Predict the 3D structure of the following.
Amino acid sequence: MTKYVGAVDQGTTSSRFMIFDHKGSVIGVDQQEFTQIFPKPGWVEHDPMEILATVQNTTKGALAKAGLKASDLAAVGVTNQRETTVLWNKHTGKPYYNAIVWQDARTDKICSELEKNGGQGRWIKKTGLPISTYFSSTKVKWILDNVPGVKEDAAKGEVLFGNIDTWVMWNLTGGPNGGVHATDVSNGSRTQMMDILKCEWDDEIVEALGASKSMLPKIMPSSGLYGTCKGVLEGVPWAGDLGDQQAAIFGQTCYAAGEAKCTYGTALCLLMNTGTKPIYSTTGLLTTVGYKIGNGEVYYILEGTNAMGGAVVQWLRDNLGLFQKSADVEALAKTVEDNGGIYFVPAFSGLFAPYWKNSARGAIVGMTRYVNKGHFARAALEAICFQLKEMIDAMNKDTGSNLSSLRVDGGAVYDDTLMQFQSDILDVPCIRPVVAETTALGAAYAAGLAVGYWKNLEELKENWAIDKEWHPSMDDETRQRLYKGWLKAVTRTFDWIE
């Protein structure tokens, strides 16, 4: 009997392959960063071929480190940066253009045109999403309209579209030689082309974008048999697919309505399971698909997303050179007692939830000569926490109940300064599980369930365990004063781009 399950974890800045045992413990892992491409202000791209190479390299690396062969894996799943868009030729396997990343803001004019007929909420009842540069839909239209030859090849049925899950899966199951062209309901819901009630591609939206259904992948359950791997994972069943945030809530075992988690990755993503019926937000949150297990019911989530979570720290590291490693931000922040009166609003790609203002841009306000780089570091960490508070306040209004605790995961949850401030500003406990990299774990769970490696969700819940908790220690007057300053600072970023 095979003993393990593998997961491709294809993120915004790096690719990983992780191997888990039956208890959800990590048996092997390998990780590799790849190039971030910024051709113009507001544009963010990745090379799909480089991404594919890092996936293959880390798959080999993780197996080698664990002393395993592909045949030791019962199944493999994928979790991925969502919305990042690739169009490629189905015969050659070559992309027509770089992957346009979810953070990219180039489609703002396309959004404005689409909004002329029905406003920003034109497709919300079908998709749960406002028209925004964030989602795949307008990125597909931009490539079709701006890259020579794509529209002509699409008319001949030679173009395939996929987010990164689809791109990786197609290649690792054979590529031009029979590769599986599919996605799951969670990733499909992030394209803004899928009707989330029917879990089918919507004809009206696809037509409005100038796309065609022949380009689009087959929509499948998050946990189910997709096909069989070729190459580095030869013979392993491909059995799971979840967008990274849905994978995280699945890995956190938030299977009951009302349970919520926040992932501190490149972005900051808050998700709450709302059960088998969608809740349409009135506060600027997203209504989207959580997951579907085999022939079971579709589960929905409310989501709040901000583009700049851990990316705020990366910006301080890479663009300003304030420290060498992201983990160093905590030590720098601890050189000062507070933020020195400054607020850092990292609206580099506009403001996401709950504002959805494409025209906003980043700002640091409240500057005096007293401020030093320690204050910059602390203000950056606090910005992450303030953004989450805004989203949780919105979620509380939508659901009519207050969150009593928050499960947290992602790389930043090992920063005690960040997590203590988060608990303080939310006034609720924050709980980190033993396996905090829950995106890969969620994909592994989905794949393992499909092949019977795990029997049911109850078995997965038994694997979840607390590693650390943070409890609020800030007085309410301080909390209100700091939050009031943040809300004032956010307004200074509005409508910067005209």
User: Anything to note?
Assistant: The chain has a mean pLDDT of 93. The CA atoms of residues 363 and 492 lie 7 Å apart. The first helix runs from residue 48 to 66. Residues 4-245 form a domain with the Nucleotidyltransferase; domain 5 fold (CATH 3.30.420.40).
